[in-house]
Amino acid sequence: MPDNNGREQWGSKIGLILAVAGNAVGLGNFLRFPVQAAQNGGGAFMIPYFIFFLILGIPLMWIEWGIGRHGGRFNHGSAPGMFDVLWKNKLAKYFGTLGLFMSMVILIYYTYIESWTLGYSIFSITGYYFDQHTAEAMRTFLYSYQGRAAGEHFTGILPAYILMFVTFGLNFWVLYKGISKGIEKLAKVALPLLLIFAAILAVRIMFLGTPNPAIPENSVWNGYGFIWNPNISLLSDPKIWLAAAGQIFFTLSVGMGTIHAYASYLKPKDDIALSGLTTAATNGFAEVVLGAAIAIPVAVAFFGLQATQEFAKGGAFDLGFVSMPLIFQRIPLGQVFGFLWFLLLFFAGITSSVAMGQPIIAFMEDEFGFSRKKAVGVVAIIVLIAVQFVVFYQKYGFLNEMDYWAGTFGLVVFALVETVLFMWVFGADKAWKEMNEGGDFKIPRVFYYLMKFVTPIVLFVLMVWWTVESAIPKLLLNGVSNVDKPYYWGSRILMAVIFVGLILLVKKAWKNKINEENELR
Amino acid sequence: MGLTTGGIIFISCAWGSITLLTIYCFVKVIKSEREDKNNKN
Questions:
Q1: Residue A521: predicted pLDDT
Q2: Is the pLDDT at A420 greater than 60, yes or no?
Q3: How many domains is chain A partitioned into structurally?
Q4: Residue among A12, A271, A281 whose CB faces B22 most closely
């Protein structure tokens, strides 16, 4: 591809699509989605899920691609600069700081979670946990690996720490290699491989049938029924709709500034209409077809409906790191299938985490003129320092607190800000033209109205709902033990330091620019 | 329990629509990339 204002560029369109899809396809597709579907009305959950896919997911995808490509035209690869060109107001760039904050904070703890999947892929192929035959034992194995409890396999946190370091190194090595030679190459290998691994597992599980003929109700088909049989009466419950909207939000990795960063390396006439839709569809395929066909059906087949519900209530980690390892112990070639499962999670994780590193690196490069090497080095040092708190204080809820404010609540706030800025402040007509520019197809006109009216309203309702339902209780530390409270505050202080630091960096970057302009005059 | 008729309908619609959309999009992307290359040549 020809030069792009001297900035890096994607090697191919398919590479870019795989990179953005890789960003979206993460641990949530294989762990969070089946739990959400099963807990919220089974097949009936898919009705609001698809509605929100159309009115929230796809519009936000196009909005973020549009903002990103538009910002790239002005040599901005991160939200502060992008917002600054959308809204000629000195506050705009500070709103954009949210896009740096969210991706950076999530990167800090996500890299650590990602390293568990790498560790478990090694433990699977070596059969290291294959002597842990109960859920309690498997949970102890996980906790002892994380340094949260004493266990017979791990005497300390060192193995987890080393693997965190390896994962961290891999992430920053890919980021250092750059857009086409690092991120794109990784996506071209990792995304197809993870889809193949997931397909192999899904097919294997489908043919498991009834593993124990003495208990016929424990079957894969009952597992499918658990996820897909519709409980239509639940559709009148607003919680189901909000859960579906939340899932669409998480799964597409919108609201964190990563898609903007990737799209900024496009040329002004490159397509975003088809590319945005393709990434959303690929993520949907990985989630609805593959994600729903693995963890829950196999758990029902081996443990029954009630135990699976307990695992699902325990959350995504219980399902992924406790129930799945127990199942791999019980199937032929379990070590290989376990290896594939955790490696696919690792690939899903790393293609997402490199995307989270890109906005802040692009910010350093574009706004401070740093070389890629210097930008990656600076970000790596900051993240490495911050991740220490996550590793050593995870058992006190340090990670959970970061995950809630940056990885959950913050996303909807940022998405609402960007939607209002693009569709209302920048202007819906200009935004619509931007999104259709160079498009391989024309976005149906109905999306103009969806993006302008429906998407911001849905985001606003979601934000208000989450504020009342969880943000206020979380803020007041309801249900947090006195022992853990200082660590929750520590987590908040760390996030505040990062946020204030980013605000000051943004301020300095713009001050430097004004000084440079004055000198040129 | 197994899959009820409703479950079969939902799983078929969900899997069918998302798979078709994904295939349609990728075919279109590959075609457009090929056209771009031909135009450049």
A1: 78
A2: yes
A3: 1
A4: A281
